[in-house]
Each structure stands twice: as structure tokens, then as C-alpha cells.
Amino acid sequence: MNKLNRFKRISNLVILMSEKPYIPPAWMFRDKKPPDDDAVFEVLTRVVFQGGLSWQLMDRKWPDFQRAFADFSIDEIANFDDDKLAELIEDASIIRNSQKIEATIYNAQEFIAIRKEFGSFLKYLNSLDKLNNYALIVKEFSKRFKRFGPKSSFIFLYSIGEDIKREE
């Protein structure tokens, strides 16, 4: 088979594959809202750790993250001390990026502050301006949460069922 025919076959395969309906991963809340702030926080943390890594790696390691981070109990994580931080940095079953681990603890503390002010994260989110494809929310998140830039914000919002449009 010459290279041109092989390319045509591959191109047709790519077109056929792209015509399949997109099925989001099980951890995304596309057709429903997360049940509570801990579930929202788990998605936020997953997006933080996902940056620069493969989705498959995160899927494989996620049960260990759930164990290491107290099933994403915001109250517990917000109170992690230096000993717990050191323990997490040494835990080979998770991604041992100290900046992302520290960001997770900081972000849990931010969630508590949001909960005190608004009652829940989703009430906070609903209080923000969602116009212009969430542009102001993305800026707010980038300022408020650590290790959380515009791309992370868009993935997070999409993952918790917000009506975010994909950037071209």
C-alpha cells in the first residue's frame, strides 16, 4: 500500500471517529449538577492535577487521590498541616507535585470562605456574571484559586455541567 492510500484510509477513519457522539468521562457532571461542595471540589482538584498530564494517568491514579485527600472532604483538607503535606509529597501513589498539593489545601480553604459567604459553591457560582462565555468567572477563578488559569477554569466549568462554549 502506498503512503497516499494509507493517508486516505487514516483520514477517513479520523472523520468516522469524530462523527461518534462525544461521551464525557464518568467523573464529569454534564447532565446533572454535582451533589455537594465536596464533589465540586473534587472536580476542581482533578482539573488542577490534570494540567500537563494524560487523562489516562489521572484515571488510573484517581482512587489513590481520593484516599490520600480524605475523599475530598473540604473541611478535612483545609486543615491539613505540614506533616500531612509532607506525607502527601512522599506518597508515590499520587502525583507528588508539591505546588499542586499546596494549591489543593489552599483551594479547600477558599471553598470554606465561599461556603461561609454564599452557603455553597454553586450558589456562589450562580451569583457571578455568566455572560460572554463566563469571561468574568474565568478571571475570578484565576485570581481566587491557586494553579487555576483560564484553560483550567473552562474545563472545570464544563465538568460541573455549566453551559460553557468550547473556545475555538
Report on the structure:
This protein has 168 residues and is an all-alpha fold. The chain has one domain: Orthogonal Bundle (Endonuclease III, domain 1). 65% of the residues lie in helices and 0% in strands. The chain is globular and about 40 Å long. The two termini are 36 Å apart. Residues 3-17 have low confidence and may be disordered.
Which helices and strands appear, and what pairs or packs with what?
Layout: H1 3-18, H2 37-50, H3 55-68, H4 74-78, H5 82-90, H6 98-118, H7 121-127, H8 131-144, H9 150-159
Helix pairs in contact: 2-3, 2-6, 2-9
Poorly predicted residue ranges: 3-17
Largest sheet: none
Q: According to CATH, what is the topology? A: Endonuclease III, domain 1
Which geometry do the CA atoms define? globular
**CATH homologous superfamily assignment:** Hypothetical protein, domain 2
Q: How does CATH name the architecture?
A: Orthogonal Bundle
Write down the secondary-structure element order.
Answer: HHHHHHHHH
How many domain units? Answer: 1
**Beta-strand residue percentage:** under 5%
Number of helices: 9
Q: Structural class of the secondary elements?
A: mainly alpha
CATH class: Mainly Alpha
